Each structure stands twice: as structure tokens, then as C-alpha cells.
Amino acid sequence: MENKKAVQLKKFSINNEEKAPLTTNQGLKVSEDEFSLKAGLRGPTLMEDFHFREKMTHFDHERIPERVVHARGVGAHGIFQLYDSLVEYTKADFLTDTSKTTPVFVRFSTVQGSKGSSDTVRDVRGFATKFYTDEGNFDLVGNNMPVFFIQDAIKFPDFVHALKPEPHTEIPQGASAHDTFWDFIGQNHESAHMVMWAMSDRAIPRSLRMMEGFGVHTFRLINADGDAHFVKFHWKPKLGVHSLVWDEAQRIAGKNPDFHRQDLYEAIEKGDFPEWELGLQIIPEKDEFNFDFDILDPTKLWPEEEVPVKIVGKMTLNRNVQNFFAETEQVAFHPGHVVPGIDFSNDPLLQGRLFSYTDTQLSRLGGPNFHQIPINQPVCPFHNNQRDGMHQMTIHQGQTSYHRNGLNANQPEPAPVELGGYESYQEKIDGRKIRGRSESFLDFYSQAKLFYNSLAPFEQKHLKDALSFELGKCKSGMVKNNAVALLNHIDRQIAEEVAGNIGAELPEENLEVKSDKKSPALSMAKTVSQPATKCVAILLNGEADDEKLTDWIRTLAQFNINYSIVAKKVYTISPVLKVTDTFDTADSSLFDAALLISKSSQVEPPVLEFIETTFKHFKPLAVAVKDKKVLERCRVQLDAPGVYDLSKADIPLFIEGIAQGRFWERPL
């Protein structure tokens, strides 16, 4: 007779909207879900944290085969050359020997979208670099923003779940403008600083070649004497830091969703090799507590005015991949891939990533031998007793596969430190096992205010516009109100303006951080400006003066400015000039500037739209028209900043405008 009291195995569904205690997958009720188990509040994460490992393992294996995050990416090969030896700080060979050229592979990516999403969505950009050093691979796995949304890795699955398309509709793709993302932000105020970066122009870069890279986390440099310094890594682009405007980014997403990857590929093919300088911020161990922020907190940056960036070398990307899947798609990065002289800090987000990345590669790349895929192999020999496993591509010879052994004279044997063996920094740890957050991590708003204070007025306006757009797409009044409440802690004026735009409640009490502190390095307003590698659309409205057009193009080429000739149809103008694009295939958003040439008494509507959009996006515009009356119907002010009448001004002034890039003072 059936025992009705017996536990029955059955199919069932889970309704996460019902009230229920949080448990592990084994049914164990969980008392804390925001903090990893650590040795002291500022200590390292402990391996025995079964809840963290279960949660992170499940998250890492959720999607096959594309990456859970950073699925859409593009990569390129290059080299790194050190300027000056850093032997005072580290024993890492590639950072101490200036005679060596280190091969690198870089993968840029977006975070939220799938492999098929658009390049120009508002998102954080991944900036991951693999150094193939003589001592093994070193992976600097970072972003184009110096901070992150969360402080503890145990919350990473929650953050990404909230950011990703909502599970009941799989909408939206490649966007953070939806309820679950902003619900997470409103419930987790540690994200305040990062969300300001994500709503700034940094989230819509003009080009991958024109964005900074940051290692985000605090690492350690260890020299040959065993002395340690805390360090943060920076990539500074030689072309400067430049962004799109929001309307422009949206247009590009429809006109050319591969805009960034195509730009990178074509620049390298042309020989316009992108370059970044490697910069280090270094803090002696004795100064760890000498700042008004915790240097281990991944939601905090080190202001460059307080901790200067030391430029130490240059990276040049000079070769495109031969096969996208074999290289860009199969490359496996890991912040735990380090070399002697580089070690970790107790940043709780970094500590969790040290587990997560290997776990992810096991699923995504089909087993434990992903390091044997050519793009992941070190350039130095590797020997160990690991054997077999899926996709084993090495034929291991010999009888022994264990350590210690006598049958093979204990080979391979550990290398002593003095012969290059890796030794972890012997940090003293003293603390109770605990789930919690150090009090020094509790200041969520000061650096968010610092970032906003540091922006130029046009950058501040763009940030508020972005907040209004994103929160305006949310449906839940609670989500909107909570987000405005967070903004009220950062800046009252932002909260007032955004609340008014989206119809949300403004808190009665002003809780903003009272600070006028600025860090000029955080604004893009004074970045490097140059015309090289920018692209001009030469618009033909009717026939052109071949001789003058040839002279102008020759001058553009002298400054390494790219160009496309756009007309109603494709045709050959002369033996050396050809129309390459039509008004059906080209768009103002795909260019950095425009030059209108017209002998006609009438300007065609597509031409008008092109120059009006160029003007609207604050870009330089040059006009060479026979009859000024043809522009009377156009919403372009010929006397506005950044507009050049080539009947009065010569082409060099236009080139200066191309170098400047945008004319934010232009009235619209």
C-alpha cells in the first residue's frame, strides 16, 4: 500500500512572487545573502563559503555557449612596450625589462547584450588584456569605467539578473532602461557611484580606440625584496577619450549595429594602429588607511589628484584576428592569471572573481583544457601533472602523473622563488569568520557626488537626460521613486529635475552629500583632441569642382583624416575620385564631420537632413555652396560655432574643428 506520508518526487514550478524563505538548492535556509564569508570584515573570502560557491557556480553556467556577460565582443592582437623599469615595485619580468616586447591580445565588449546586440547601446564596456609574458600569461580584466556596481561578488548574479532582459518577456536587449535594473539600483545604494558613470557619456564611447580602460580592482605589486605596494591599472588612449551623443548612438544602432567592431577592424587594416599607455596608481602599504575612502572598495576610485597615474608603457594593437571564433570567441580571461610580482588584495569583488572565471570557462569552453586552445596558450613552456579531461590536445608521455614521485626523479618539480616560482604575498590575517561589510565601505554617495561635480556642464546635462530617459522607460512607480530617492542622496538638483521629468515623488528632505570636491581627470572635456583617424562625409549636391575637391581631399589626407564621398548614386568622378556611399547607405551619425558641396540652386531633402543632423549633434560642418539661399530652409545657423563657410574660410580651419570634435556651445 502506498505510503501517503512519503516524500514524493514530482515536477513542480516555483512562483518567486510568493513569500518564502531564501534557501540553497539543497533547501537550507539562508540567513545572509549580501556578503561572502570572510576572515574579518576586510579579510579574504573563504573557500568554505558553500553558499557563495553554489550561487556563483549556478550563475556561471546559466548560458551556453555565449558568455553570460560580455557576450558581444571584438578582439585584436598587439604588443606592449615598457618605458621605464618598475623594479622598485615589482619583480614581474614584463614590467622590469625595458628591452622586451610583450605580445598581447585585447577583447573589448559590452556587458548586457547578447552576441547579436548593437555596439552603441548605453552600457559598460569590457576592456580585457592578455599579456603573453615569458613568465606566463597575465590577464588584466577590466572595464572602461574605474568602479563597479557592487562591493561583494556574492551579489554579482543578482546584479546581472537584474540588468539582463527581464525573464518573463526577454525584453529589453542590450539596455538598462527597464524596471528590474533600476529596482536593483534603488535597493542597493552601493551602486550609486557606478550608476552615475553608466548614465554619463562614458557609456556610449565614440570608438573603442577612444576610451579608457581600468583594472577596477586593487592589486598588489611585490618586488624582489618582498615589499608590497597597492596598485590600480589604467589604460590611457593616445587618441583621447571621446563619446557619442545619445541620439547619435541610437541612430547608429539602426544604421550600423557593428559600428565599433568595424571601426576597430578598419583602423588596424589601414595601419592606424590604436595605442594606449599603461598607467599605474601606486600606494605604499603603510598608507592604506590614509584616505577618506577604503582603497579596497571596488565602488571607489582613487582620485588622480591624490594618487597620480604613473605612465609606464605603451600598448599598440597592430593585427586583426584571422578567425573570430577561434580567437575572439574562445579567448579565456581570468583575473587570477598573474605572474610573479603581481598579487591580489582583499577586495571582496575581486576575491569572488578569482573563483568565478575558471568555473565559467569549464562550462563555456567544454572542460578543463581550455588553456590549450591556441589563443589561450602561454608563450612559455608549461608542465604539470594534470591529465586527460575533455578536449585534451596534448600527448603526455611518461609513467608518472603525480607529485611527489620517485620514478621520474620528482619531475616536474616546484620551482624555488629565486628561480621564478610564484609565491603569494604573506599578508597577516587576523579576524573572525563573518558575513558582513566593513564600516569603511558604507559611504555610498561621496564619490558619486565627486564624479558629478567633476563633469563639464554639457556632461552633467547629458547625465540628467540619460537618467530621465532610463527611468522614464520604467513602468513601476515604486522603482522610479526609489531611484529618485537614491539620487536625492547624491545631488538634490538632479533628483528634482529627474523626478519632474518622469513623474516620480521627490523626497521632502534634502539628503544630498554636501561636497564641492572635484577631480578634473574625471571629465572628458579637456581630453586629447586631434583630427587623425576621424572620418568626414563629403556630401555632393549635384556636380563638384573636381580640382578643388581633389585639393581638399589631399589636405584631409595630410592630417590622416578619413573621408567618404556621398551622393545620390555611386559613380566615378575622375580617375582618382569616386562616390563611395549614397544617401541611402550613409548617415550623419556614422561620421565625425561633414562637408557640403553644392552648385545646385536646390538642396535635396536627404542632404538637408544629413547636415541638419550633423549640426544637431554638435559636429563640425563645412559648406561650399554657390547660392547661400539654398540653405534658407535648413535648420543650420551658418554663423554658429563649428560651422565653416569655405567661401570665406579655408579648409585648415575646418580641420581644426574636426580636431575639436564637438561644439557644445552651439545653440539648437
Structure description:
Belongs to the catalase family. HPII subfamily. Decomposes hydrogen peroxide into water and oxygen; serves to protect cells from the toxic effects of hydrogen peroxide. The protein is α+β, with helices and mostly antiparallel strands and 668 residues long. Among the domains are: 283 residues, Catalase core domain (Catalase HpII,  Chain A, domain 1, Beta Barrel); 126 residues, Rossmann fold (3-Layer(aba) Sandwich). Helices cover 25% and strands 18% of the residues. The protein contains 15 helices and 20 strands. Strands 2, 3, 4, 5, 6, 7, 8, 9, 10 and 11 form a ten-stranded antiparallel beta sheet that branches. A six-stranded parallel beta sheet has the order 17-14-13-18-19-20, sandwiched between helices. It has a two-stranded antiparallel ribbon with strand order 1-12. Strand 7 and strand 8 form a beta hairpin. The longest helix is centred in the middle third of the chain and has 17 residues. The radius of gyration is 27 Å and the shape is globular. It starts with 36 loop residues before the first strand and ends in an 8-residue tail after the last helix.
